[in-house]
Amino acid sequence: MAGGLRIIIARSAFFEVYEPAWCRALNEIGVRCRIFDTHALMPGGLFGRIERKFMWGPGIWRANRRLEREVRAERPDVVLFYQGNHFYRETIEKIRRSTFVAGYHNDDPMGPRRRSFRYRHMLKALPLYHGYHVYRECNVTEFLAAGVPRVRLLMSYYTPWLDFPRELGGDAARRWASDVVFAGHPEPDMRIECLAGAARAGLRARVYGDYRYWGKWTPPDALALLSPGPPLIGEDYRMAICGAKVCACFFSRWNRDQYTRRVFEIPACGAFLLAERTPVMLGLYEEGKEAEYFSSVEEFVDKARFYVENDEARKRIAGAGYKRCMSSGYDVYSRMRQWLKDIEEWRGS
User: Fold this and answer.
1) What's the CATH number where 99 sits?
2) What DSSP element (H or E) covers 35?
3) Count of CB atoms within 10 A of residue 336's CB?
4) Range of the structural domain that residue 341 is part of
5) Helix, strand, coil share of the chain (percent; to 5)
């Protein structure tokens, strides 16, 4: 039974919505789960950045040896490698002799950035995993072709203790108010022109993200219009969502995304979602009733302007999107129950 499982999550990602959210949800469901914190064993400063870029060095070696020792001592039922970027093929080979080795990756190691140094250990180890969950449908066949015997889709989620509606007033309302908001990274796609187009149309478009990257990809005139603010995490990220009339959502071509975590977080916060139109999105929310979609810069600007100016229509769709999100199993608990069901099936096969 799932309640008797003992799980170690070997951490390679960052942020509370990743491994910590999995661990909290699994423990609250009744599974004994803890995190092996790879980052705590990595050096800080320049040396740490070099190790994380090339996935080579004493910190990487130390994390692999420590995990091997802890698995031998504790003998968990499952070791989940979340991303698994830090772990050698030899480490996976040793651990799989005594426990079920599972994997999950929220990025796209098979996509345009496949040759990145950060994926080199994980890709070599793929045939040794007992089972793997992936973020996007296209990765299912690719991971099977790479030698993983069992692969299934596990979509992202919202976290109920973080993603919920906020009522902003006073200074908070003034600080976070916007017509259109986007918090994320730039890519050489239509997101920059969409946001700049909204600003040129007279909308107050606010962008948050690392200025170094926005400066690299954004033409000077658009950069001056958007004036990106700092990256947002935690409560600031949710306040920006709740303070906006329209929350823009773009999908990474680098990751071949047809959806992203924001499409669950934004409706869960009670906010209005304007996302790129994809087959996946059309299955998640009904267009024009639970969310709105666009396929061009012109459609983005037209819809953003319309819903900024029409409070009743915007609030109706945001409310319906919130209800759909709450009722459809888009939360982390539902995803973890799906993950546990798959793991139990795989372990019994």
Assistant:
1) 3.40.50.2000
2) strand 32-36
3) 24
4) 2-157+331-348
5) 50, 15, 35
